[in-house]
Amino acid sequence: MLHFEARKEAQLPKKVARIAIVLVLVAFVLGPRGAEGRKKGKVVESFAYTAISCGGHSASITDFGGVGDGKTSNTKAFKDAVDNLSKYASKGGAQLYVPAGKWVTGSFSLTSHFTLFLHKNAVLLASQDMKEWPVLKPLPSYGRGRDAAGGRFTSLIFGTNLTDVIVTGANGTIDGQGSFWWQKFHNGKLKYTRPYLIEFMYSDNIQISNVTLVNSPSWNVHPVYSSNILIQGITIIAPVKSPNTDGINPGMNTRTQSYSCTNVRIEDCYIVSGDDCIAVKSGWDEYGISFGMPTKHLLIRRLTCISPYSAAIALGSEMSGGIQDVRAEDITAIHTESAVRIKTARGRGGFVKDIYVKRMSLHTMKWVFWMTGNYKQHPDNHYDPNALPVIQGINYRDIVADNVSMAARLEGIEGDPFTQICISNVTIGMAAKEKKVPWTCTDVEGITSGVSPPPCDLLPDQGSEKITACDFPAEPLPIDKVVLRRCSYRVKHM
After folding, report:
1. Average pLDDT, the chain
2. Is there a cis peptide before residue 453, judged by omega within 30 degrees of 0?
3. What residues are labeled active site?
4. 304-321 burial, b for 16+ CB within 10 Å, e for fewer?
5. According to the UniProt entry, where is the signal peptide (predicted)?
6. What's the pTM value of the predicted model, to 2 decimals?
């Protein structure tokens, strides 16, 4: 008897220890709100970011049946999520969280007062089922599609007539799986123009930040007929021989009731592209002239570009609505065909004026400066050959380049010269196989100061005292005064 009681007493501490361990494990698993989390079958994730606004309600794509296995179509899940969350637009806005995983989806549209947030290990995979890509009419300022005379496939992430929309994350990825589309394009099997990755139309207060875009079917980011756009800290990568994979293409901007002018700010972006890294446009020939919406007040800074077959920054060639007040600074371009390129032609009409570029670092270029008035691509034969573009007030300064084949190719239009060109404080190191004539100039007018190698006679050197002659506005644009808020969320999802 005594022996039995002794055994019970000896075993008691071990039982207590085991119970204590179990309780600790339960507490660890459940956490401070673990009982509620287990009861509802939810997992809580929290994250923070900066944005133009912070929404009040949040949900995960998994709450709407999303499956991130890289195979299941999530097009319906994204549409259902946006539709459900749109009811919070007037109640502080909403946010849709995309957790880690590979989420196959076709095109889907966002709504106002909405944030799409991608986890750092989230990948949106563009569907290769063409039934998941609705077809839109051509842009009214283009008159036709870029790839075909008809309409265009809706962009992967799309929206029209929106306000306060954010696409951001922790550098999650949007993969356009472009080779599917590039092959069809090269084989002439597309009836409609290829989709873009992100496009917003007739919208204002838009932010696209901290995401990585890869292998777009065509252009990557296209805000069009829109105002007050912030594009910040994004990475864009496409094979350098992929067709028309422009990085960021700000199009025509429109006035809104809230703002008297339009603004776009692009900063801290890294782009490897099969076309222009930044392409500024405003409509094509008679369609752009008729639509009459210029692209104005654009700021580009701290851009790194690689594009062996195109430009770091291109203005045109579709510039028939006009381009004005573009400011670019602190630009690095490596293995890029040209630094700044202006493309236009007879029949374009419109204007490119008040362009300001400073502090460029360029390595291995075909041309540093390239302007052409002979870019003859037209949407159809109905353009007016007497619609001549106005190119004036082009300012470049504080530029260093090395391994350059030709310093500049500046070709205006006979009877319609490009005027008020100013280039100062520019040093261009020529490549071993440089062209015999580093500068070619026709139908251009302007001045230079402190430029090496010496420019053409149409741009006479004004001497070192004019080295700061080329203008760069001191007054910041309104978009540069935007103050971002710090947003934080706790997301419960299955």
Report:
1. 89
2. yes
3. 275
4. bbbbbebbbbbbbbbbbb
5. none
6. 0.89
